[in-house]
Design a protein that fits this description.
By secondary structure, the protein is α/β, with parallel strands linked by helices. It contains 13 helices and 11 strands.
Length: 341
């Protein structure tokens, strides 16, 4: 394979963008693995018992005990972290754009259904977990909460970092807490396809795992939260994956991992830092996250299955309309259509 190296005269701005995305990739792939490894807990225990470093670990473990439920109760965001300049370079690397189609009434709470999952959900993070998108200008009076896998909030140290960006777990208690704000103005962003959808996040793929995902519909009805479909054009174009067709040993392994652990990791690849031929850095592909029009929802504390199914069907129709209306603007041919699974 012939390696295509990056030129030496790349502007400083682009180099800083690459560094920003590189640290983001590392924070998920390395910091989480380190935080969760049994070695970390063993080292902590050994240092605590034999090295007499109790003055460091006892305070943190005590803090962790009393703070364990914080992610479920709205988390603990810090604008200082969300304002980091590194996120501006992160956004401009792709670049990431947030597109509004209609105004939203801040007297209501909303659920944004985010599609597709992609490999690492770069569009959702860039738009809703930093203050360097134009979210505040487009949706004044709103606070956005990105709901993601609860696993991340069990990782020592990483949980604090992730919460500071505005991320919270995707759990019934967490979503209920966000949507229970009586005066409105809260948005729960839920990446509905989950780990299963990440396994089909190929460039040019428009397969969404949604037909059996109805928990968010029940939550919307229970709290009277309006539903808004969101489609992030370009999300699947950032990486390639090692071929994992249905029935292959790799897909079977990934699915079993998802069933047992609740998450799985696509074997993705794209470009490197100093060359464009291989590596874990995403391609510089533009992402346009388009926020659709809201679906009004009447609060129903105890919705029936029929009510859930009807609203779910309405949501899928609105999602398809959003895709069809906007696809030609972002370079998708008229022949392409969404595939619901």
């Amino acid at each position: 394979m012939k390696i295509q190296f990056a030129p030496l005269n790349i502007p400083l701005e682009r180099r800083l963008q690459t560094v920003a995305v590189f640290q983001w990739i590392l924070s998920f792939l390395l910091l989480v693995l380190f935080s969760l490894s049994a070695q970390l807990w063993i080292v902590m225990f050994v240092m605590l018992i034999y090295k007499n470093y109790w003055f460091f670990y006892i305070p943190y473990l005590t803090w962790l005990y009393f703070d364990w439920k914080t992610p479920e109760l709205g988390g603990r965001r810090f604008d200082w972290v969300r304002n980091w300049t590194v996120w501006k370079y992160f956004r401009n690397y792709f670049p990431i754009h947030l597109v509004k189609t209609v105004d939203l009434d801040p007297s209501h709470n909303y659920i944004f259904g985010f599609h597709p999952h992609g490999v690492l959900v770069a569009g959702a993070f860039g738009n809703f977990c930093t203050n360097h998108s134009n979210f505040k200008e487009l949706f004044p009076g709103f606070t956005a909460y990105l709901h993601t896998f609860p696993f991340w909030f069990r990782c020592p140290f990483f949980r604090e970092y992730f919460m500071s960006c505005g991320a919270v777990p995707v759990s019934k208690q967490s979503v209920s807490h966000v949507l229970s704000k009586e005066e409105g103005g809260n948005i729960s962003i839920i990446v509905l396809g989950g780990a299963e959808e990440s396994l089909v996040a190929y460039p040019g793929s428009f397969t969404l795992y949604i037909t059996q995902r109805k928990g968010f519909i029940k939550m919307a009805l229970t709290h009277g939260a309006y539903l808004v479909p969101v489609f992030s054009f370009g999300e699947n174009d950032l990486f390639y994956q090692i071929a994992n067709p249905e029935g292959s040993w790799l897909r079977t392994f990934q699915q079993k991992m998802s069933q047992k652990l609740g998450f799985t990791l696509p074997l993705f690849h794209a470009r490197g830092i100093f060359q464009y031929s291989f590596g874990l850095m995403p391609y510089r592909k533009p992402i346009h996250t388009v926020v659709g029009r809201p679906i009004p929802v009447q609060q129903t504390p105890h919705p029936t299955q029929k009510q859930i199914d009807q609203l779910h069907q309405t949501y899928m129709e609105e999602l398809r309309n959003l895709f069809e209306t906007n696809k030609s603007k972002y370079g998708i041919s008229e022949q392409e259509t969404l595939v619901f699974k």
